User: Fold this.
Amino acid sequence: MSGAQRLGGFVALVVAMAATACGGGGGGSPAVSQTVTTTSLVVVNTGGDWGACQRKSFFDPFTAKTGIKIVDGPFLTDGQIKAMVQTKQYNVDVVYPSANLAIPPAGTGALEPIDYSVVNKSQLASGTYTTYGTSLDIYSWALGYRTDKFGGQVPNTWADFFNTQKFPGKRALPGDNDVPAVLYAALLADGVTPDHLLPLDVNRALKKLSTIKNDIVWYATGSQGQDLLSSGEVAMGEEYANRVTSLRDAGSPVNISWNGQVVAGDLLGVPKGDPNAKAAMEFIAFATSKDVNGTFSYCAAGAPSNVKSVPNPQIADELPTTHLNQPHVVETSQALSVYVAAHLDAIQSSFSNWRSS
Amino acid sequence: MGWGLLALPATLFMALFFVWPLGEMIVRSFSDPTLGLDNYVRFWQSAAGVRSLLETLGTSALVTLICALVGYAYAYAIRFASPRLATVLLIAVIFPAGVNVLVRTFALQVVLRDTGIINDLLLKVHLVSQPLPLIRDEFAVVLGMTCMLLPYMVLPLYSVMRGLDTEYLRAAESLGARPAVAFLRVFLPLSLPGLYAGGLIVFVAGLGFYVVPQLLGDNAGGRFLSQYTADYMANAEWGYGSAIGTILLLVALVFLAAAARFLRVGEVIRLAFGGAR
Assistant:
């Protein structure tokens, strides 16, 4: 998430608080408990190519089928989702909670349990659905590198990523938006296998990261990470895979290594107590259904979470799911999300203290 | 009553949107998740938090000093320039301040980075063999913040200087003072209120900076308190975030109180935002 989004969060919170105070004093707060016939839903859509693709693949077909209009909503952080539920000002009906919020007990007060009698989870890939979230697509963090910096040598693994002797140059890491993904990459580089990541040895990961600390460039949003790689500011980065492949498609001298990729589901959730919860569940069921789920791969390089859904065969090589035969970590797996959610505070503090030392 | 009623809408607005949330923040810092000083103890025990606070104070102080030196010379130049040149110089200060901070910071990023305009040129003419470390360090943050905050130093200084009667300088010189002495013993002391006003505003505004250190800083050792706080606000730790906000507020108030020994705070605000006398 970007700084602007975070600042936006503060502003939104202040306004939300003031609005509650106002509603309480004036006695004009809207009733939310009555049964509502939903005529429109607000779904997070942050625009750009992906935003347009989402509308074309999911929003408009849903409206055509149900008559329920879909309005673009802003991205909300976990903190903002909680604030929205606390103040009962439901501005967005379908949100993107993090994997840490979408499981009990973290999400119990903040999100509605996904109604799996409506959403067909038997067709969804493992690691793409939790108690409080169902994923629309599968994305991944992978090793993106410049092809013009190492004299033809190719970095294949996270171990190569940490080898600044053989592969000199700066490294981009998403320290502000996915600390666990950074720690997983460091542990894989240090010889840990993907199924032995738990219990997470944070100190071991930080020790490994210390070996390249002076070469790390921390970034906060996917677009910043992409920009660092495309401008040549860094020689390698832990990047959103689709952002690396789209640079490659556009002719940039970059490539991707899928070995050790950190795969995750983009979870959709519904705020607790949302008056449009029923329609929101219908939307999630619709968007993850067999016939609909894969259609977005014709306008964006993402993999469907529904395993019965067929993605665009022309972009097969660009999808994280095509490369699952190589070692990989499933960030949104039950085991990892439960562990990280339970230890999030300690992980964040250790990481912050290490980073600023 | 009477004319006082005109202040009512603004007072209500401030009470609702400023005083009330601020009070809520202070209350939460002592009560969320448990009643007591837990949030404050946690902050003082966190190495990253304390380091961010010191970084924020140190960088803001350095930026204030640089703004004072550069801004004083600039305001002095406007004061004694021809009217036409003075207008151009003033516009050059005010105009950039109207452009969004985020946009200006991104522009600086393009100029300063390893593959940016400056390093590109230096590498091409073989003046350097490695890019100069212009970005992702203290230097870039100080430069960026100075760019953003300089107008708030120049304007109050110019406002004071313009009100100064140059007859004083002539009087000093007629009594035998060389120009340098006349400046140091007459002009400088008289312009000090503008310097204090600008310094206070630049320093206090600097404490809350977020975008500039986020985009130009190293995001490691030199993180600002606002960046540290954002980590916890994203996880909805309102109590802890509120405690950090309250600490920063207290620090700012201490500096305001100290400044109040030199001048009336009301005058600072008038000098900064009120324009000419």
